[in-house]
Design goal:
globular, homodimer, 11 strands, Udp-n-acetylmuramoylalanyl-d-glutamate--2,6- Diaminopimelate Ligase, Chain: A, domain 1, disordered N terminus, five-stranded mixed β-sheet
């Protein structure tokens, strides 16, 4: 048997998995623990038996209505489906720093909400000569880290995992309305200023951007965490006329200008821009709480990507 | 003859223009001033004769290499080509507030760098039921204001009008290199902190966003004012490896994450995000200086769109 350090190379994983699977079929799980050469698997076994990336993904997809989807960005982007999972990390953006920390905590499977490759479709052809891309791929290979996007499925979960994680963090889960999940109605008006303070404190954001009035009162709040297409954002503003539209990442020359003009015309909707990564991190932290009981033998750690910006 | 207030309605414009044109052809400009019913035109005439929107655009296009372009967003978006210009306003974004101020200064032609309709292609089908769009169109009609995009042509001017206006405002025009206009090389290293302070002061920006290190020294600066496609931004960062990449509007999950990863890997490029409108306003202010001598009888006013954001 190879050392623990090297056992997770592709071939070793495959051999080990095949071996465990066949032994299980042959003799049943209760016997395995007495089999001396398999003692390294004891911490996962029998309740917490070792899982491959594919098995973890299958466990997740069982919880998602309509999964698997014919078209989705939620694909395995690095690593292999066969590889044995030594630990899971959840994050919004699998940045180089998150990858380094993943290796440090001994995990080899990053469940990332967003793209590792600087484009939502995770296309890599255009990046092949990019030194940062090359470095990132090499680092992922060195640590044998698999990255799977958990974007479309997590949003498709009932309730939307990103939204519910955020609402819980803000203490707003009681305002969740399954009929219209993105639109919250507060029982009493709250000033934009207080909502800004709440999001900054609970989501750990140093500075946010506002198109609007800090003194304005809000009862109707539309949640558009992460990125949402501007045409859809503008349609939602027109349809629901929220007092406050909370966005992760948005487009200045699209939604931002529409909100600015709307306010000039007399419409009340203010726009609060949190920044992409920090707007969805609570949702990926919540993924730990949600997934851990389903894979009890695998340690799941949330490593936040953090806000890339300094505001000066 | 109709009153000055109403003379610029579509029909009146057309009649007046045709009338002036035919009179000019018949008798020559020098005679016109003595023609009593045309005395209202005296202030434009003969050197500064009244111009239609189309004539102003033609004067501009004469200065642009390769114009007219087969495909460009620089189209007339409201008003008519035939309308007589009472005054010109330049701006980045023709916001409702800019339109109101345009009417106040008695101008009826906005030369705008960016979209009035919240999308770069200026498509309006999707907005037909949007109340803000309807209000904006009604306001433009009420004041009979023409909007023409001056985006692609202004960037295609030699030198790029937005870039040169900004460089002049920053005192950096001496670093302009026609061989590689976007890349500036400073003679001595300057700290990011000092460049941030300079852009904030000279461009009138309250807060900027930085991915990088305020203490880092810069000599190579890449200018990507306004919006630039992320793949092009990332390719430029990879090709030129600037110390500082100055952007107007950018994409968080694309360029921003690439810069963040690059810095983690050891690359030096910092990213300074100014915000879209304020990053190009100096270029539209410069358009006044550039265009005024070409249409000496028409008053040109720069009305800044200003930054839509409050940073909290």
């Amino acid at each position: 048997m190879k050392s623990t350090k090297n056992i997770y190379s592709d071939t070793a994983n495959l051999d080990r998995r095949k071996f465990l699977t066949s032994v299980t079929k042959a003799v049943g799980t209760s016997v395995i623990l007495t089999f001396p050469r398999l003692s390294f698997a004891g911490k996962f076994w029998p309740k917490n038996y070792a899982l491959t990336v594919q098995q973890v993904i299958a466990i997740i997809l069982k919880e998602i209505p309509g999964a698997p989807f014919a078209t989705t960005v939620d694909q395995l982007r690095t690593g292999t489906m066969d590889q044995m999972v030594t630990g899971i990390v959840t994050t919004t953006f699998p940045t180089l720093e998150v990858i380094e920390q993943t290796a440090k905590v001994g995990a080899n499977f990053i469940i990332a909400h967003e793209t590792p490759f600087y484009n939502n479709q995770d296309e890599t052809d255009w990046l092949e000569k990019d030194e940062v891309y090359q470095y990132k791929i090499a680092l992922l290979k060195k640590h044998n880290i698999a990255i799977w996007r958990f974007h479309d499925y997590w949003h498709a979960h009932k309730p939307d995992g990103i939204l519910m994680g955020t609402l819980s963090t803000l203490g707003w889960e009681k305002y969740y309305n399954p009929e219209n999940p993105r639109l919250l109605t507060l029982p009493n008006p709250v000033a934009v200023k207080a909502i800004v303070a709440l999001t900054k404190e609970k989501l750990g954001i140093s500075t946010v951007r506002l198109v609007g009035d800090l003194k304005q009162n809000c009862t109707r709040i539309y949640m558009a965490l992460g990125y949402m297409d501007s045409k859809r954002q503008i349609a939602a503003i027109e349809e629901f006329k929220p007092d406050l539209f909370i966005s992760g990442e948005t487009r200045e020359w699209e939604t931002v200008e529409r909100v600015r003009d709307g306010r000039r015309m007399g419409q009340k909707t203010s726009l609060l821009v949190l920044s992409h990564a920090v707007s969805e991190e609570a949702g990926m932290q919540y993924a730990v709480k949600w997934l851990q009981p389903k894979v009890p033998g695998i340690k799941i750690t949330h490593i936040p990507a953090k806000n890339p910006f300094t505001f000066v």
